Each structure stands twice: as structure tokens, then as C-alpha cells.
Amino acid sequence: MNWPSSRVEERAWVARGRSGSRADRMLRTINVSIPPRIADLQYDPTGRVARSHEAAVIAVARLEAGYGAHLAPLADFLLRSESVASSKIEHIDAGWHAFGKALAGGKASAEAQSQLAAVHALIAMVDAAGDGPITLDLILRAHAMLMAPDYYQARDAGALREVQNWIGGSDHSPLHAMYIPPPPEFVAPLMDDLIRFCNRTDLPVLAHAAIAHAQFESIHRFVDGNGRIGRALISAILRRRGLTERITVPLASAMLADTTKYFAKLGDYRRGDVDGFVDYVAAGTLDAAAASEESARALASLPALWDERARPRANSADAALLDRLLGTPVLDADAAQQITKTSDASTYRALGRLTAIGILEPLSTAKRNQVWAAVDVLAELDALSAAIGRRMLED
After folding, report:
1. Where does ATP bind (predicted)?
2. Does 226 carry a binding-site annotation?
3. pTM of the predicted model, to two decimals?
């Protein structure tokens, strides 16, 4: 259907100092992209896009009503999966060993802390959207959480950008940039317009979330962190609209499968192809929901497999840990003792036995402040992302 494209304006560019190449310093004009106002626009998919949209919504509803309602640990698992994949799109990948340490509050790498911050930002946005309207303040607070681990970025986090930014090209100027967002004076009014759009209830739900994401990325309101907050906005709108109540659709894994296609679809949206972007998000959602059901079945089977491997005595520390391991796949000694409600020695013996048979794995070699992880659960994070990626590449 018809959708207004972003307009392009030529603007003067003044080089910042003497950094960069001669071409950077000689750049005098740039072409900025100014998105349209969309708060009051109507959108109704038709034909194949409508069928794809409907199938995706049904798949999410089935996942929510089935495993989402009856497998409590699935909610945390999918939320972590979405946050990790969203970070990977930005080339932030600590690996699940380091991410597990950060998750348990242990000393971890900067990348792991950044991935954990993405989890916290996503939780904040989704939880708040379930309780009330999506607000600019919510987005700002989530961005501050996201950027908190980076000392230099944190100082400017949670605020509208006041500089011209760009995507791709040179580090020193918008020379050969893939996309140049609107100048900073457009950001506040465009975000006000987008917030109005986000809180509408008269649009097809998945299309609503998809368009909001594409518009947010087009405004590019922050200096850094736009992608992760923009993808979290999809989950927030799905929660706000009531399609999800417990689960988070790991859509970022679908985008991660082919980032060139993802960025190209965003570019098409800016040229007015709203149907193409909605169809792309619907296909990714359908694949993500189907793969999530497979992961849910794998997770649900783990307690029985662990019991068969460990054969714990009834009411033992081993049995207590196994009973809680699916919901607490990463834990330190204090968390383990809170679960077992036994002595330090008994808890450590249980941890040692489960480690010896391969159910747990230490995430560090240090003896102090040690963290253990349920190998099968964290490995499933990678398996889910890979499964979604394979489905997307086969489409």
C-alpha cells in the first residue's frame, strides 16, 4: 500500500578538526534523510502480506498459550536469547561462558556486561509496556541502562542526540555513509510523533510493531544503541498490545541471520515500501516462533534427562539443585546454598557431583567467587539462534 517515503535534503557539513582522510576533510555537503510523520497514518496489509502477518500472529499466540503458559523458565530463556542476538547484530558477542558469568553477577568482560545491559533494557521496556503506555521517558531510561557499562557512552546516555550521526562509511565524517538520519533539530518532534504511533490500538499488531521499529531506526535518535533499543521496541509493542504476556519473540535472531537483508529492508521502508518490511518481520516472527517451540520442547525434556544421569537421592542437595536448574541455569555458591538450604560443605559436594557428570560447568578456573552454568540450557541459546537463522536463510 502507499506509504510516504523519507525526504532527502542537502545540508552543509563542516569537518571536525584535522582527523580522517583528505576526502573527509574536504566534504562540504551531505544528504540527510528526514522521515515522514506517521502518528495518524493508516495501515492494513493485503494479499500475501496479510496472510503472512496472520500466520505469524497465530504462531506467537500458540507459543504464548502453550509453552509460554506452562513452562515458566521459557520466558527468561527467550528474553535472554533476544537480547544476546540483538547485541550480536551490533558485533557484541562475549560467548555464553562470559555472558553466564555476567548473568550471575561475576566479573566478566566488557562485551558480556554490554549483553547483560541489553537484557536489563529489554526487561525494563517490556515490563513497563505491559503496565501502561510507551513513553519517551521509558525509552530514555532503557537507553541509560543499555549504555551504563560503557563509561564514555553512559555520560551522554538517556538523552536526545544533539549532533549529526550516520551509519557506515567513515569514522570521521558521513563520507560514503549508508544512511544519514535527520539533523538533531528534527529528532524531538519526530520522536513525539513516533510515541503517539506506538500507543495506538487500531493497527494490525505485528505490523504496528514492525513499522514502529523501522521508524525508530530511521530517526536514529541516539548516538549509539539505536538498534538494540529499536528492536526492544518491537517486543514492547507486542506486550503493550497484549499479543504476548510472558514470552519475548526472539526476532533479533532472524535479523542476525542476514544483516545485509535486514538493513536493506530498512532502506526499502525509508523509500516507502512498508509492505516489504512488514512481510519481512512477519516471516522472521514465524520462524522465530517455530524454532522457539522446538527449544521449549528441548528445555522441557532436560529435567528428566538430568535426573536419569544424576540419579539423586530424594530430598538431597543434588535433587534440590536439579529441580531449580532450568529456571536458574547460572548460579554461584550463595545462590546454590539458598536453593539447597544445607551447609556449605553439602552444597559444594552437590555442585561437584553435578559438575563431574557434565550437568554443570564452572565458568571460571578461579576458586573464589566461582560461577556454575547448566551446560545444556546455555548451549540451547546458541542452538535456538542457529535454528532461527537456518529457517530464515531457507525462506
Report:
1. 224-231
2. yes
3. 0.94
